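User: These chains co-purify. Model them together.
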Amino acid sequence: MSAVAQTARHYGEFARIGFVNILAFRLRYYTGIVTYLINVTVYYFIWKALYAADANFAQGFDFAEMVTYVAVGWVIRSVYFNNIDANIATDVQSGNIILTMLKPTTVLARYLGQSLGEAAFRLVLLTAPTAVIVALIFPLQAPASPLHAAAFLASLAGSVVLSGALNFIVGAFALEMKSILGLLRAKFYVQELLSGLLLPMTMFPPALQSVLAWLPFEHVAYTPLRIYLGKLNGAELWTALAAEWAWAAALLWAGSWFWGWMARETTIQGG
Amino acid sequence: MLGRVEASHLVKEFRGYKRREGAWGAVRDLFQREATTLRAVDDVSFTVEPGEMVGYIGPNGAGKSTSVKMLTGILTPTSGSARVNGFDPYRDRMAYTRTIGAVFGQRTQLWWDIAVVESFRLLKQIYEISDADYKARMKRFDEILELNRYLNQPVRKLSLGERMRCDMAAALLHNPPLVFLDEPTIGLDLLAKESIRRFLQEINAGLGTTMLLTTHDLADIEQLCNRLMIIDHGRVLFDGPLHSLKGMLWRETQVRFDLKDPEHAAPLRTLEFEGVRLEETDPLTWRASFDREQYAPGEVIRQVVAAVDVRDIAIEEESIETIIRRIYTGGAIPSLDKARTR
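Assistant: Joint model of the two components:
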């Protein structure tokens, strides 16, 4: 079997087990729907107050767009969010990571595959019901055009891979640092902020904006959301989508290289 | 060659830092630290032939786990090399890991919250096991381990013994020519231990699987292994069959005499017997201890029986535990230098 087919099979199999595994926790997702609804509601009222004070508050987005931005943003977060970094950290700390390292597969396939299965599960049980309820409660706009809708889905898929690759790299630090709880927490807030989920990038200082444009983070939420709202058109849209997927591929490659490099001189804890 | 383990002059050093005591020491550590080097494995060489079952023992911190990690490709040696199943474990990791199985008594490779069979299906895919092989092996595992009862249960609902049976099967599902077993019977009750040992014996006898077993339960070694390696302070202290360890280090034999009547014990108090220690355990029981090279038990028994009326006699060997304890505490090292010839 070719290496590509073999890798795909491993991802598929870990995704399957990730899906089955998370079924055991399905109760958690009913509460998840409530959590996401609360988040959207809170941000709705914050933005409403801000726009009441200044109708041009977030440059480039009017209030109707901003409501859609927040609602769709939280809905897609339920898909691209993953715990790869925390899972790796736990397994490194307990030493159970050794069990994966003794298998003819890659650590990347193991953790990213599992998280893809979980994402598929959440798409059905968390994202879809949340989207329906949010759409019923809040005045949301539809995607700008069928083309934008399709590009949005492609971009969302990119977010899933990109966010997985980013978290994998963070998780790989656990090999050296043993305990990365502090790092995980810092990363969590940085990623929420820099992804564009909490604030559109237009609200950052211009100098910071131009730096962030060269980093992968804003592709996680800001790029798919701008595509959804029709803020990116023509060449701009394809450039953004290509940049997002290029980052995803580059970080996947970097992550698996980084893991190999970290694992070279590491000691796995416990007997 | 499959099933063969070759370690030659394996060395692993870990670098660390000395820590000063107390709060002020911790502050000073921030600026200047003293590096230390720990030699966890110090020039370890051995060969295991296909089909052997080898016990690999040593006290905690002896270097067992570190050497096993080098043999499995998790760690790279500081110097020396390993060739296992014909592979360099670290460099050929992908191809190599297909040919080994590993069981850790303290960990499980099964997915905790879902049915056992899901983990088996995952392994089937990863090791690319054909449907026919999978069915045949599962049937065989069921015959010895009675797996089918647990297959549809989530792992967290299994007892330790049941879980361990499943872990055994999971590690052997791809029929590896070599298996690493790390304390496979830890925490198990007698029946579960028996069942695991019988399973390992059948697999070894039927398939010629090489097994390298680290354990603190010497009954595992006595029942399973035809060869024993003892490692301490990173060095191999003994490598050979269990009986030759006994032959080399079993110094003392004890004979227990149960007397018919405590009144008649008087002659024993005056019995002069060079090299034999006669001790009264209680009024009815006496013990004679002597060097097994100086006397045969028969000679001692004859002398005692001639002097007093004896109801019962028992010859007590030193247990393997006692012998190994003597090695760990260092008392047996000189005589072991002879043993390092293999």
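The CA atoms of residues 51 and 57 of chain A lie 6 Å apart.
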